[in-house]
Structure formats: C-alpha cells, structure tokens
Specification:
The protein has helices spanning 19-25, 53-62, 87-93, 112-115, 119-128, 157-164, 187-202, 229-244; strands spanning 12-14, 34-39, 45-50, 104-110, 133-139, 169-172, 210-213. It is α/β, with parallel strands linked by helices and 245 residues long.
Length: 245
C-alpha cells in the first residue's frame, strides 16, 4: 500500500541485495544501509533509507536543503532491536533508538499564525542549539478559541491529535479570529472558553504540560480577513493575559 500511493514510474535499489531477496528472508547485514529511489512523474525523486538512526541524522545534516526536502528526525520511523545482541553491536547499530523517545515535545496550536508560521523556524532553532526538542504544528487556519463561532478549534481533529501526542509544552496563538464581527460578543465568553481549552491539556494529560498563551499581533488594516482592529487591540490582547492568569 505504501509503495502504491507513491505513483512512481519505476524503482531501483542500491545495496548488497535486491529488494525482493531482502523481502524473502528478511536478512539485513548489520552494518549495511539500503537506499531505494522512486522517480516520480514530476521529475523529482523520493528516496527511502534504511540505516542506523545516528547515521541518518548525520546524513541529514550534510545534505543541502536547497536540493532536498529534508524531514526532521522525529518524522522518521524508528525500530529498536528486540533480539539478543551484544551491547557493543546494539550501540554500533543504533545507540539512540531505545532512548529516542526521550525528547521534549512542543505542541504548537492555534490559527493561521501557527499553521502557516513559526513552528518550523522554532524547530530549526532547537536543532541549531543541538537540543533534544521536537516541535509539531497543530495549527488550523481561521480557527477560534470560542466554542460558539464560525470555526472553533474545539471541533478540529488537530486538538485531539495534540492531546494524544502528550506534549511537555503547548504554545497557543488563538484570538485573532475571535475578533471577527460575527464571532466576538464579550471578553468574558472568550476568557471562559479559552481557559476551558487550556484545561483540556492541563487536567486531562500526563505529564501535565506548561502552556504559553501568545497574544495576537496588531491588525494593521482594520477589517483585514474580517478581523476588527479595535477588538484585537482593546479587548482580545487583555483577555489573553487574563486567561493566562
């Protein structure tokens, strides 16, 4: 199924044995990396690698990002070895696999400020500092903190996905779309619903995360995307601060 979804034109493998031979007996030389290349109709190529995680992490650092669309290591499938092996062999193959889950998880929730914005840059900053932090984007364009609005974040599958990921930190940028004329009633309703959304993470998860509420930026053109400039400036920003308190 995975290969059928690629819509590839042809495939070829680079390695000590062909794909069919490996599939037949599932024998992998312990120090070998396999590469499968899938030419796509667009002219691009999709590359699938099987190799120790430390090696592939080093490889990703060396590949030029202007020629490759590079995934973060957190997006890869990792498998710990479950068969008896000498410790030295396990360390050589994949010393980080068993502890690969021991990273700090940062969930970014919110509207288009998140969905189209900063999480990728935030991940790059952590990577540059060589910190074991994984940032995931759970933003949905146009969504609101209020339950009774044109697009509540409450109704989005991303909310459940973020909770199930069990983040250690949650960064939220909600509030801008709440300031639309059809959504905004009074600040008290906004604070109540936004606080209840925070409780979805604080009271129903373990570990209990730390939540950062980001006040929406100013709206420089009144009515842009139907957002009321004065409501953001005079009401929403203060309401976000009260929610955090």
């Amino acid at each position: 199924r995975a290969l059928a979804d690629l819509d590839f034109v042809e495939t070829y493998a680079i390695g000590m044995r062909s794909v069919d031979e490996r599939a037949a007996d599932m024998a992998f030389p312990l120090d070998t990396a396999y590469v499968q290349v899938f030419p796509l109709p667009s002219g691009a190529h999709r590359v699938m690698l099987t190799m120790p995680i430390t090696d592939i992490t080093a490889l990703l650092r060396d590949l030029p990002p202007d020629h490759f669309e590079l995934p973060h290591v957190s997006e890869m499938r990792t498998h710990a070895f479950r068969v008896p092996m000498p410790p030295a062999v396990v360390d050589r193959l994949s010393p980080a696999v068993e502890t690969h889950h021991l990273v700090v998880r940062v969930a970014c929730i919110g509207d288009s400020l998140t969905a189209c914005g900063y999480p990728k840059q935030l991940q790059a900053l952590f990577d540059r500092a060589e910190l074991r932090v994984v940032v995931r984007n759970f933003g949905v364009g146009g969504c609101t903190a209020q339950k009774f609005s044109d697009q509540p974040y409450w109704d989005e599958p991303k909310l459940e996905e973020a909770r199930n990921w069990r983040p250690h930190f949650v960064v939220s940028t909600l509030g801008s779309n709440d300031a639309k004329q059809q959504n905004w009633d009074k600040a008290e309703a906004f604070v109540e619903d936004y606080a209840a959304l925070c409780v979805e993470f604080l009271e129903r998860m373990a570990p209990r995360p730390v939540i950062f509420l980001v006040a929406p930026p100013p709206v420089y053109v009144d009515g842009a995307f139907d957002i009321q400039q004065g409501v953001v400036r005079d009401e929403v920003q203060g309401a976000v601060a009260r929610t955090a308190e």
